[in-house]
User: Fold this.
Amino acid sequence: MIHVQSLSESQSEFLNLDARCEWSATNRSMLALKVFLLALSLYIDSAYPSSIQVPLDLHKHKPRTLHGRFLHITDIHPDPYYTPGTSQSKACHRKRPKKKSDKAGYYGTPYSECDAPFRLTNYTLDFIEENWASEIDFVIWTGDNARHDNDRKIPRTPSEIYTLNRSVAERMERIFLHRGIPVIPSLVGRQVIMTFGVCWHAFFSTSKPLNWSTQLMRVWIICCSVYTMLTVITTGPNSITNEYASYVLFCMSLGVQLTLPSIWSHFIPFPYLQVFQRGAYYTVEVVPDELAVISLNTMYFYDSNKGTWMYAMSCSPADTCTVVSGCVYTARDDPGNLQLDWLEVQLKMYRERGIQVWLSGHVPPSPGNYFSECYVRYAELALRFQDTILGHLYGHMNADHFFFLEAVDLVPKTKFKFTKGVGLYETLLNDFSSLPKSSNIVMDEYAAVNVAPSVVPNPYLPSFRIFTYNISKNAQHELQGALKKKKRKHGHDRGDKGNKTTHCQIEEHQKTWICHLNDPWHSDPDSPSRSNQRWTPLGFAQYYLPSIKDADKSHPPHFELEYVTYSVANLHPRKGLEDDFQYPIPLKHLPTPLQNATTSKSKYAPYGLADLTIESWVRLARRLGDSSHGKLRKRFRKYMFGGGKEGE
Assistant:
């Protein structure tokens, strides 16, 4: 196997060649080519030795001491063109505005459409490294790591996207992987840009003369990549998935393989590299044989991609592309359907092995975000494997909120009751207020989705979350206590329901997923998602940067605790249990009032949740749905929009 860890200018010429490769299918020619390439592999291996570590092969390491915490970070959006003092109307790139309030801030500009300066990105990651890197077990990183393409005078390029993603990935690697902490990133829309035809042309075009060693590398790359793409390019691998995974170009008939370094090569476990290249989704056992995180490619589900060619994700070398159909039942080779088929297999295997799972991705699964058929399939899997899935963690929306996947979404509708012109906050309150009464609710029919706020102050305040989870091997944990275009809505349609049997007798409905999802559900009130035990999520602390607007070179901003989901009592040990108590949030990371064990009530703990089980989320939703809880609603809205206004 050839490993090329870094390429010189001459070596990297293989990325810009204008050539075609024709090779004979006869045994003699193939044998000659195989001998030639194997000789070449020996030459390159001796000339450019390297030792790329097998990514996250945790089974080969000693068991780690768990802290019972993990980081969820999302939507970093670093912008290399951000310039302090420039105009917000120019994406904070140029022009000095007359009004001080319109000027770009030194560390970033909250409540604007400007992305994050490198100064903010570095400050955030430096803070996390200094304060949390030694306190967590793994990192769920749900994108988005390139600036928005919102400046026509400085269009975003593929090279810039890859460079920004690579820069953030290298920081993540240095901060976490070097400490043995797994990092699970998710691919998002802004991390890809080109059609396959463009990539192919860029890959094989050059105007520079090539030396003999580069010519040999060209033959190797072209032959291997042509064979690979012709056989498996239907949904990948392609230039995009290869850019994020390690470049593993298989020449199956030659029996040889070339591996090149790439953006996420150290994050993706070796057994899943080929899966990632096909669709940019994969899974990591963050605690081997016990706890896993699945990273999904939500590009295939996101209805904003409707009718697109999904960039390069479904194209052949001849630019014969399969349009993303949105998981329709009749398109079984649709990339979204293939991913959900894969997800179903993973969940079945993890359930059989007794492994608990977090699902993660960029765009959250809601009726307003996903193609309707993708949403139905995802929701059905979430409920069918409720006893295996601990929770669903996403980003993209930049607004702090939660919502439910419900069984009500899996039955036919006869009437619709959506209200036009209602924002996210009102939609959620309407949703929560229509939940069944406590005596009538069936917890088997719910799954909670958590959407985290972003690091980029576009349009709110920089934030990140530290989750805690139960690592006790006992049945119960000691923390258990008191408990401008029309947009589709993100809430649930609670209109009148039709009869599924009658509905599915109609021919046009027979080709929808609702009429074919009839597998029994694995719901268990004693599972970790429903009852506090080992692996149950217990809560999170959210940190934010309220002082960013006024910060400057002499007065840097400071991350502060915004709120915790726990009850105040659960932040400290009960009397007599001090010696064995695992603090959910180390006292040094709490404000002074919460460090005092005698504190019984705090503005930092408005929710007072015993844990993050489904029942706890439903109880909180019911309280928010009750108009008499005006103070709680006010807090919820403040956290959702970082103290600003919706869509500011």
User: Anything to note?
Assistant: Residues 2-55+197-260 form one domain.
